[in-house]
Amino acid sequence: MFVEAIEAILQDQFTPSAIRAIENTGNARPAWQALADAGFLELLATEQAGGAGLGLPDLFPILTTIGRHAVPVPLAQSIAARALLARAGAEVPTGMITLAQSCRYDADGTLVCAYTPFGTIADHVLAGGPDGLLLLDCRHAQREATGVRGSQCASLRWPPGHAAVPLPGVTSGEVQAWGAALHAALIAGAAARVGDMTLRYCQDRSQFGKAIGKYQAIQHQLAVMAEHIAAATVAAELAFCADGTQPARLPAAIAKTRSSEAAQLVAATAHALHGAIGVTEEYDLQLFTRRLHEWRGAHGSEACWAPAVGDAWLAGEMSIVEFVRSVALPAALPN
């Protein structure tokens, strides 16, 4: 029910032309207000608190739908941030909230959240500090965009002395696990959209009298792409197979490792099969492949999370099959 409802709004609000307009002007307020008015920011909130009371398994298909539409506002991040703030017992501010990848203090006391997703348009940033959560008002921050065409990622700097009172009850690791899990789901959704676009193009594009999708070499590349999309989707879903509103660190690490690995391969194959048209600004493919590359690095790429997965396996002194089962089906293992 929720997936169909949000799908209808995303199709209406985030057409390719609307996405380009938001990227070019930075004005996402009308589209954001439509999402807020529909109540989709409170999907994880309890029914007593006016939310939908969804669990992580129910949220996963919604996040992949957001990825499929290349939504240019921090909808997924705001849903997660509201759940984290609720656990910390903090009041949730209005507006767009995003999750910081990192948080540090420079020598002069400047607070820096580097390469923050949606840092160019967010109203607030939720960062994991050593003493708890930091809820930061972006109105007081200096925003430094990456310079990448269409990117909404930015580094934010708050001047020395900026008041940021830690909110106890949530750790920095939990923020990073949420960031990894939700970006894995977004990658899975966008990768599926890229796969659909590429398959359709190969069916429509003719060369030497027949569709290029009829050639065995093209079919092989499409098959490999489909394998990576399926693997990324299964891995991403693993991070949401839990009770409560907090993805566990190890499943999130596995999800982000595999989805980030797939992101670059899916994007590269899509552009290889589309040829020159795929890199043009007018063609919609780049709206999704650009995000695949950006989301690959958001909250840690495969190079960041793979060592955590490897360390967990080595610490368990079990076979790789037993390790996978312990993560995917913990209730099925004997005590």
Automatic annotation (TrEMBL):
Keyword Flavoprotein: yes
Signal peptide: none
SUPFAM superfamilies on file: Acyl-CoA dehydrogenase C-terminal domain-like, Acyl-CoA dehydrogenase NM domain-like
Positions of the Acyl-CoA dehydrogenase/oxidase N-terminal domain: 1-89
Top-rank taxon, per record: Bacteria
E.C. no: 1.3.8.13
Pfam families: Acyl-CoA_dh_1, Acyl-CoA_dh_N
Residue ranges of coiled coil: none
Record key words, sorted: FAD, Flavoprotein, Oxidoreductase
Database matches in PANTHER family: ACYL-COA DEHYDROGENASE, ACYL-COA DEHYDROGENASE FADE28
Similarity section: Belongs to the acyl-CoA dehydrogenase family.
Listed name of the protein: Crotonobetainyl-CoA reductase
Organism of derivation: Cupriavidus numazuensis
Lineage: Bacteria, Pseudomonadati, Pseudomonadota, Betaproteobacteria, Burkholderiales
